[in-house]
Design a protein that fits this description.
The protein is mainly α. It has one domain. It is 69% helix and 0% strand. Helix 7 runs parallel beside helix 10, helix 8 packs parallel to helix 11 and helix 12 packs across helix 14. The longest helix is centred in the C-terminal third of the chain and has 17 residues. The chain starts with a helix and ends with a helix. The mean pLDDT is 86.
């Protein structure tokens, strides 16, 4: 339902709709959100690339209902960190599941928006998790911007230490794409800065 409202209809959040669903479910909607928070948040992650503001609004509303220890103020990281790995596994699956075949370009856009909205420290603490999603992107010719978003969001100090893993993760077919040069130029720039800080012996 959330994907339909947010992705297809771009319908603004309506408290009236929420209360109407509550009446039909005898007040169990809060329980449904709590039991299925990961699935609810995932539907909204998929909508970020097409209707970012609506998706954020819906996510903030279900975050309010979510009965879980949480930060007082809403942000994407706080809303997703408890189920971050689960959501990334689901995102990875969308690139091999035929159900999502016609939506994959929008899903890649959603992935980019997600990366750009995650807290840098949190995002940089487990870069390998996002790398597994990036490696799965299909069609690969639309993945360059996602790779750039990943590199630019990662703490430069962490990227310096993870450059070898990033290079190993880059698919061979991506390397051959026109436009891939910007990915390697960015990585080379980080490496040059790192080398310039090393003391000469």
């Amino acid at each position: 339902m959330l994907w339909y409202l947010c992705y297809y209809r771009n319908a603004p959040w309506s408290d009236m709709l929420f209360h109407r669903v509550e009446s039909y479910t005898y007040g169990l909607i809060a329980s449904m959100i709590n039991y299925n928070y990961c699935k609810c948040s995932f539907a909204l992650i998929l909508s970020l690339g097409k209707n970012e503001e609506s998706a954020k609004t819906y996510l903030s509303k279900i975050y309010e209902v979510w009965d879980h220890p949480k930060a007082k103020n809403f942000d994407i990281t706080s809303a997703l960190k408890a189920n971050y790995l689960g959501n990334l596994l689901e995102l990875r699956r969308t690139f091999s599941d035929d159900v999502y075949y016609h939506y994959r370009r929008d899903i890649i856009k959603s992935l980019i928006v997600l990366i750009n909205n995650l807290n840098v420290d949190f995002f940089s603490s487990t870069p390998g998790r996002m790398l597994t999603v990036l490696k799965a992107i299909d069609p690969i010719e639309f993945s360059l911007d996602a790779w750039m978003a990943f590199l630019q969001r990662l703490d430069p100090i962490i990227l310096e230490k993870q450059i070898h893993l990033v290079l190993l993760a880059l698919p061979k077919t991506l390397i051959e794409l026109p436009g891939a040069k910007k990915v390697f130029e960015y990585i080379s720039g980080v490496r040059r800065k790192a080398d310039s800080k090393k003391p000469y012996r």
